[in-house]
Amino acid sequence: MMRVIYSFSQVCAIFIGARDVPEVENASYDFIVIGGGTAGNVIANRLTENSKFNVLLIEAGPSDAGVEEIHIPFLCTHTTPNTPWDWNYTTIPQIGLNGAAISYPRGHVLGGSSSVNCLVYTRGSEADYNRYASYTGDAGWSWSNMFSYFKKSERFTPPTDNHNVTGQYNPSVHGFSGRNSVSLPGESTGIDGRVAAALEELGGEFAFNEDTNSGSPLGFGWSQAVIDGPTASRSSSSTGYLAPQFLSRPNLHILLNAQVARILQSKDHSVAAPSFKTVQYRLNKQGSLLTASATKEIILSAGSINTPQVLMNSGIGASDSLRSAGIAPLVNLPDVGKHLADHPIITLSWLVNSTTTYDDFNRNATVLNEAIALWEAKRQGPLANGIAQHIGFVRVPDNSIIFSGKGSNPSPGEGSPHFEIFISNFLLGNTPPTGNFLSISAIMLTPGSSSRGSISLNTTTHPADPFAPPIIDAGLLLSPTDVPLMREAVKSILRLASASAWEAYIVSAATSSQPTISASDTEIEAFVRANARSAYHVVGTSGMAQKGASGGVTDSKLKLKGVQGVRVVDASVLPFVPAGHTQAAVYAVAERAADLIKADHQ
């Protein structure tokens, strides 16, 4: 099939296929997918498996092709913020973070956040998905059902260095023929032996877990990442689900650099609920608004920030808030943009007695270029690794005083962790001119029920400019259990760093403000408030709920409530943030969603 490039308003709009359509407005599409990110590319791929379905995929950002910062695993920390591949959002001041406004990266490129995240592949716990099933009344979201979708999406590959992986993962819980490549670390590091010795010495919460992606993640093991081992490259929804063999499908068209403003209500009033079948967008952030229409469904996969923004700009949301923004309300769905949930993260670092850390790659252009040359020539070397070789999950005892009084246990169930710890062979953050460092980070996985933020429209203009960055409140550290759990995570890190395996290695804390193992609870909690930030695992802003429930934005089949012809498929539908990085969950959600869509249009 030929690749045809059309020019609209001096912008390349890319169509994949042989059909000679002069403009998108004159084409006939069964489905339009808004957002070529983690979920959207899955939907586009799976729907076009049926040659009878014509699909248009609209992505606001540029192509990811040829961008080494995106495709070289270790350079994941260079993809955001303040780059062309990031929406470059900033939150409002966060009460829980001493009033700090924080950067809030989101992928603005084909592949979305799967093209710019730090590649960690964690699924969460069995209890996470059983809670989704219970909350929505749909057993299809249970672990026993979703496990097949994790395996369907995954193609586990041997690590780049082809080392013996026996005992480093459990093959029975992985897939080997999916679109999304996953692998183990592809280059050994100077801390691997020390980590193993520390875990063996300490035991208990640091006990070994052969595979933390089995649904039972408690314990420590080797980190898995979305890296294609044979090519030592990032695996994103773009490289996997939009690989060349899929781009050649004549029923798949992809339009880049096209930002969606809103979806438009159909003039057909013969249906009981309002029908939305038309997408309004602009190219290259300029020019007049253009339209494209779908005969079957619009699938909104713009992510946890942009999906609610598009809905509100379309007149779908809380009616009073829409009127205040100068938008005529069409469908009253008060939960649109509400109930944002996210994971806070904290990092502790130490100056170490070593010259084998990865710090020089972040501060010395000559050293970095030599490593890039090695990667380009042989697809080997330290840049084949992500940010962490080792990862672990810890659960606070159920009888902890943290959960007494006002602080009920926010865990979804037994066997589910309260926090994650990962270990990095470099300073995770701004690298100083000299020194070698070790970083150990903790992500608090179970924000309490009060830790909820929101997405709202920027009302500085009336009506609201549909392309103005939305107002983001991350809602971090607002629940009674949040800071105490972060405190316990810091204590766990300090216990790990105190193991005798580090005695000849760790020299001193990287900063004088970092707490020591003898620090008081008050001192640790102050450090958390001053230094915690977001792990960017944003969910909940278009949350699914039971079909007849008064709340929620979608039903359990991900259909937009009170509307015909629109479905939401991205992280925003998850009503609770899972106990892991969200990309694995989103791949599985999108795989199930594709099956649900196909079943409705057989």
Automatic annotation (TrEMBL):
The active site is at H537 (proton donor), H581 (proton acceptor). Its cofactor is FAD. It holds the Pfam family GMC_oxred_N. GO terms for molecular function: flavin adenine dinucleotide binding; pyranose dehydrogenase (acceptor) activity. One of its GO terms (cellular component) is extracellular region. It is an enzyme of class 1 (oxidoreductase). It is found in: Secreted. Residues 303-317 form the Glucose-methanol-choline oxidoreductase N-terminal domain. Keywords: FAD, Flavoprotein, Glycoprotein, Oxidoreductase, Secreted, Signal. Catalyzes the single-oxidation or sequential double oxidation reaction of carbohydrates primarily at carbon-2 and/or carbon-3 with the concomitant reduction of the flavin. Accepts only a narrow range of electron acceptors such as substituted benzoquinones and complexed metal ions and reacts extremely slowly with O(2) as acceptor. This is pyranose dehydrogenase (acceptor). It comes from Pholiota conissans. The lineage of its organism: Eukaryota, Fungi, Dikarya, Basidiomycota, Agaricomycotina.
